[in-house]
Amino acid sequence: MIVLDQKNRIFTLHTQNTTYQMKADQYNVLLHTYYGSRIDGFDLSALIQYGDRSFTPNPSEAGSNRNYSLDVMPQEYSTCGVGDFRLPSIELELANGSHTADMRYEGFRLEKGKYAMEGLPGFYSNEDETETLVITLKDAAAQVDMELYYSVFEDYDLITRTVRVVNQGTEEIRLCRCASLCLDFLRTDMDFITFNACHLMERCMDRGALRSGIQSVGSVRGISSHQHNPFVILCDRGADEDTGICYGAMLLYSGNFEAAVECSQYENSRLVMGIHPYHFCWTLEAGQAFTAPEAAMICSPDGFGQMSRQYHKAIRRHLLRDPYTGRRKPVLVNNWEATYFDFTADRLADIAREAAALGIELFVMDDGWFGSRNNDNCSLGDWQVNLDKLPGGLEALVSRIKNMGMKFGIWMEPEMVNEDSDLYRAHPDWALQVPGRAPSRGRGQLVLDFSRKDVRDHIYDQMKKVLSCVEISYLKWDMNRSLTDVWSVTLPARRQGEVYHRYVLGIYDLLERLHRDYPHILIEGCCGGGGRFDGGMLYYTPQIWCSDDTDAVDRLRIQYGTSFCYPVCTMGAHVSAVPNEQNGRVTPLKTRGITAMSGAFGYEMDLGKCTAEEKMEIRRQVESYKIYYDLLHDGDYYRLSSPFQDGIYTAWEHVSANRREALVSVVYDRNGAAPLFGTLRLKGLDPAFQYQINRTDSFYSGEILMKAGYPLPQMKGDYSAVQIYLRASE
Ligand code: GLA
Predict the structure, then answer these.
(1) Could you tell me if 219 and 226 are in contact, meaning their C-beta atoms sit under 8 angstroms apart?
(2) For the segment 424-458, what is each residue's pLDDT rounded down to a tens digit?
(3) Domain 332-415+461-480+522-637, CATH 3.60.40.10 — does that match?
(4) How far is the CA of 442 from the centre of ligand 1 (A)?
(5) Which of 142, 150, 228, 574 is the Cys-Cys partner for 217 at CB 3.0 to 4.6 Å?
(6) Residue whose CA is closest, atom 8 of ligand 1?
(7) Using CA atoms, how far apart are residues 159 and 180, in angstroms rounded to an integer?
(8) Which mutation among 478, 537, 558 tests ligand 1's pocket best, with the greatest number of atoms within 8 A of CB?
(9) What ranges make up the beta strands (E) of 340-424?
(10) pLDDT at 678
């Protein structure tokens, strides 16, 4: 609900549990007055204190009033160069060389439904599900207008926002910074939580207290990156899964980003999040506009668990565009870890046949099927079938797979080119490179200049030939290196600061074309595993390969960190062979199944090498996944313990909306000769219900399970796992 107090120029956005408020003051500065637990009917600007502080300039309108300074006031969208020395949200370079920006309140409008963003990903809704507030600001001297957009998704405590900047003058201006979100707090006693690490260990949670100065995470790799995720949290120091206020900030963007928090002199802090200012400079000619990527905020007064569940629901219902909405996604088998580049049509057919017999429904042919690709040094860019490997082409292979009753999926890496390819030989200038410098390689490959429409058109034509020649129901869109040598032959020198962003817009353009032309194809995003796991990609690819690390124990950490923002159904997760390819660890097959099942589930191993007993276990896993599908994918998700803390197990739980069903998954750590007795307290149940345990004669009340706990079975061996299914008796 959006409440307007026009007389006092107060704008209040209410969600079910939270309130967000802004106020235009006497000098038309748009103040940020409050964000937190829901409060109705108040002007919260009374919380702001004014006082004479040295070295904090006073705007000229304030006359002799030294108590008024932008440098200490909480602002909705911070300015640059006019007296607020904290993190700016916008930076303009005008034709006269000035770098200041001072946006003042002009007016507002209310709209039904969600604002639209052409060419950029964003949450969507029907007209009657959301309301939008647009606040207009103006920098009169610069002749720049700005619109701040806010859409309120009440039931999810979600507020999405973006910013549109318009050059209303007659001269060209340059936008050197344009954040999507600025969030000021009148406090610094908070923790900053980020999700970091590297390829093969993405999104590990890192938590630390705010301290003086600026702390930031970001990416200048051209992708959102394995190293840092464009999702961060600010929270009470003592916040945990169930208590404390926490603020999630998610940027729906797949390229360079920055999330920075500054704690400044008078106990205030500011979070600014948006496109990374590194090598970003967008020229706006007279009349032209720029729209920043969307940011999505959820505040939870009741800890991380509630924040995550709200993100999960909002993402599932209002961000993903999944061809399987309302239907079960097929369980897949992927040949990558089974064969790498070394396969023939017969070998693939063998894997598919084994898989079909175990109840697996989709066969995915990974890298190595095109050009003369027998290793990773050649053929990217040549998307024609390798007839030596696949005689009879895709047609012959797909008809074999279909005859087994399976669907077919394929791998592509559209953004890339190898120097050893027909594409590169014909168009060497299509790769990103700086004149006079030989470009750096990554995995032996170069990056195509996706800021160019002609390049995208050519790749898309090739893709269409592949996707239209046979029935393809799944596409794995991969991307296997960071961007370097970012320079485009099509743009003049002063516009080279646009290339990183134009590249991202180019990917979104191609993905949107795929959606339009092949709405039935399920696209799985991938970037060396989880190097581009962000809300921007999720709008186009409703699942993303979570990590190239398929070890079940490492995956506990990766999937745990990922779950703070992103729902289980978006995390590609496969059971693979042991010893694990990446770290050599041996874990039980059951554990691998239970871990991968809390994801977009599949297998990635040579099923022909499995023993009869293993095959029985796999058949059981596939059946369980199908039985528990709704619970796993639509249920409320509760983290019961953290894999980052020493404990005897990691546990999590899925609970149905009506609380009548729950599935608890527990993966034990290394075992001792005298294993500890573990009692696991559950969450989210109805205290009054009697729950039947694993369809046996054992019953526990919800109250007991939540207050006292459930006695965990004692297991033998390292890294064992159990699943406990609860069903309320009628
Ligand atoms: C990336 C992906 C893998 C696999 C290989 C193929 O590393 O993350 O899953 O597809 O590429 O080259």
Answers:
(1) no
(2) 999 999 999 999 999 999 999 999 999 999 999 99
(3) no
(4) 14
(5) 228
(6) 528
(7) 12
(8) 478
(9) 362-365, 407-412, 416-417
(10) 86
Q: Please state the atom number of ligand 1 nearest to the C-alpha of residue 476.
A: 10
Model confidence, pTM = 0.98
Mean pLDDT across 294-320: 98
Confidence at residue 144, expressed as pLDDT on a 0 to 100 scale: 98
Question: Ligand 1 atom closest to Cα of 604?
Answer: 9
Q: What is the phi/psi pair of residue 539, to 5°?
A: -65, -30
Question: What Rg, from alpha-carbon coordinates, does the chain have?
Answer: 27
Omega within 30 of 0 (cis) for the link into 301: no
Q: Is the pLDDT of residue 672 over 90?
A: no
Ligand 1, pocket-test mutation among 366, 412, 524, 546, most atoms within 8 A of CB: 366
368 CA distance to ligand 1 centroid (A)? 10
What is the Å distance from ligand 1's center to 226 Cα? 14
For residue 414, the CA-to-ligand 1 centroid distance in Å is 13
Q: Quick check: 198 and 120 in contact, CB under 8 A? A: no
For ligand 1, atom 7, name the residue with the nearest CA. 528
Q: From atom 1 of ligand 1, which residue's Cα is the shortest distance away?
A: 528
2-50+64-318: CATH topology is: Beta-galactosidase; Chain A, domain 5 (2.70.98)
CATH 2.60.40.1180 intervals, the chain: 649-728
Mean of pLDDT values over 203-221: 98
Q: Which whole-number Å values give the CA distances from 339 to 360, 366, 400, 649, in the listed order?
A: 18, 9, 19, 33
Q: Which residue has the tokens 């490997």?
A: 389
Please report, as a single letter, which amino acid is at residue 293.
P
What is the 3-state secondary structure of 154-222? HHHCEEEEEEEEEECCCCCEEEEEEEEEEEEECCCCEEEEEEEEECCEEEEEEEEECCCEEEEEEECCC
548 C-beta closer than 6 A to ligand 1: yes
CATH of domain 649-728: 2.60.40.1180
Residue whose CA is at the smallest distance from ligand 1 atom 11:
528
Q: Where in the sequence numbering do the catalytic residues fall?
A: 534, 614
Every domain of the chain with CATH number 3.20.20.70 lies at 332-415+461-480+522-637
* Contacts of residue 697, Cβ cutoff 8 Å, sequence gap at least 6: none
Give the pLDDT band (50/70/90) at residue 478. very high
CA of 335 from ligand 1 middle (Å) equals 11
Give 354-404 pLDDT, tens digit per residue. 999 999 999 999 999 999 999 999 999 999 999 999 999 999 999 999 999
